[in-house]
Amino acid sequence: MTARTLLGQLVKCRSAVAALEFALIGSTLVGMTLASIEAGLILWTRTALQSTAALVARCATVGAGVSSSSCNTTDNAKSYAVTTMQNYVPISGVITTADVTITSVTTCPAKGASGNFTMVTITSSYWSSLPTAVPWLSAWNSTLSATACYPT
User: Fold this and answer.
1) pTM given for the model
2) What is the pLDDT of residues 68-84, one digit of tens each?
3) N or C: which end of the chain has fewer CB within 10 A?
4) Is residue 3 part of a domain?
């Protein structure tokens, strides 16, 4: 059998066309599915950070939260932030007390308002494993932050 005859038979053969089409389209669909999941996780984490920052700003200002001593000091308010964030994202270490900054300010950049405010800023390294699994995503800036103010 010559190479020309073998090539002619290969071109006429349709038995593996479905497998080839699935291999070409399936890899794209898997990538798009993973990207959609990753985008959802990013949005969920950003929303959880923002909600936590707002709750901690209120708690640090008012001085009460879940219990009467949960926010009576800055350290307790930071611990309250870690606990609250773990209620949203049940993975330990998403934020630590070092990631929470509580300051008194006269202008709230998040609201663009003047006055006396307690401002809480929370930063978190994004905790998904996809940026390490896909090499070109590792260059992506994976730090998320949220800022909230509460009037004093």
Assistant:
1) 0.75
2) 567 888 899 999 999 99
3) N
4) no
